[in-house]
Amino acid sequence: MPTDLPYPVGPRQNRVTPTSTIVAATGRGLFMGNRGCLHDNAGRVVRPWRGKLWITCLTEFKGRRRALMQPGHYTELFFLDEAVSFAAGHRPCAECRRADYLRFRAAWAAAGLPAAPRAGDMDRHLHPARLLTFSGPRQYAELKNLPDGSFVHMGGAACLWHHGQLLPYRPEGYGAPLPRPAAEAVPVLTPAPFLRILAAGYGPVVHPSAPT
What we know:
The chain has two domains: 13-131, no CATH class; 136-199, SH3 type barrels (Roll), CATH 2.30.30. 19% of the residues lie in helices and 20% in strands. The strands form four sheets. A four-stranded mixed β-sheet has the order 5-3-4-6. The chain is α+β, with helices and mostly antiparallel strands. It is built from four helices and eleven strands; from the N terminus they run βββββαβααβββββα.
């Protein structure tokens, strides 16, 4: 096998999971996004984040085309859906997802989060909470108190709480619902500010593999 290829063989490491880790997986998911330049000149991810601008973008916008993982440019990341991007700490892009960004801002205000007149103000507030995701669940809640679109950790997997069902996350889509746990409190993955935004009425885009 050649060893001088400019990029690794196989799927690129650019799929973000609900635990905010970046893995190699086939398929792109519904959304793209970024959190800075994370890769080296050979296309290998060498850091989990860079900077406080963590956004979720459309995969197509105004006919723009990008070559993936170009040296010195931001790393193109992909999410199964918006619920995953929230769990990983990413907000909607203010340019390509303007309408969703405005919905997010309205839910932010309705949730009583600190005043954030600009997107950068939101990012500064969100950043400490999103970094906690890398350490695993730091909060617990009863399922009945969680808004739709939240992620919890159950049965060794990240699971979406969706219409009263626990759906295990897989890079290609959600699996069959799991039994609801007997324990009242479950470990929650979605950062606290995003939970408040979901509870305030922001409905995230969910992958079609989740039952309606």
